[in-house]
Amino acid sequence: MAAGPDFADVDEYPAESLRLYRHSKSARFVNQLLETIGIGAQPLLFTRLSFLIVATYIEIPFMLLPVFNAIDEIDGSMVLASRDLGANEWQTFRSVIFPMSLSGVRSGIQAVFIPSLSLFMLTRLIAGNRVITLGTAIEQNFLVTQNWGMGSTMGIILILIMFAVMFVTRKRRKGVPGR
């Protein structure tokens, strides 16, 4: 029987070069976009700007999905009633849609804030360790400088910040004393 093609011998360089070309085209697109809005072309790799772009790209679904679900649950008759009572679009958003979607905003803040404190690999791969997040500072204190006291203190501060965000974004119950 004749053997089929051995895929282990297939040269992967063409696929890799196509991937690099696609990446260079997307970098050119981002630079063209930055020039269009007046910022000008920027080096994108190993910069704070690249870290912010990629972190935003990663975290945006975690914010948008809870907000979308909260807005989707709003009864359309509430918006129509607001319009019937003479509210314009901004007043409808401010007085009806936003207050009724606050549960989604709170959930989105919690879903984005906590994971964004420890974007270890993102700071290494995209920002080239030029961006220091609280998580990478803790890691450096433990592993690089071996200053365990400072690393532990920063870890406790991180935990307290997470508790504060959870407390601020908690759902408040109306009419229940002591809660």
Automatic annotation (TrEMBL):
Main subcellular location: membrane
Entry keyword Transmembrane helix: yes
Entry's transmembrane regions: 49-68, 147-169
Transport recorded as keyword: yes
Pfam family, one: BPD_transp_1
Membrane topology: Multi-pass membrane protein
Subcellular location: Cell membrane
Domain of life of the organism encoding this protein: Bacteria
Extent of the signal sequence: none
Keywords, comma-separated and alphabetical: Cell membrane, Membrane, Transmembrane, Transmembrane helix, Transport
Domain ABC transmembrane type-1 intervals: 1-169
UniProt record similarity statement: Belongs to the binding-protein-dependent transport system permease family. CysTW subfamily.
The protein's name in its UniProt record: ABC transmembrane type-1 domain-containing protein
Source organism per UniProt: Alkalibacterium indicireducens
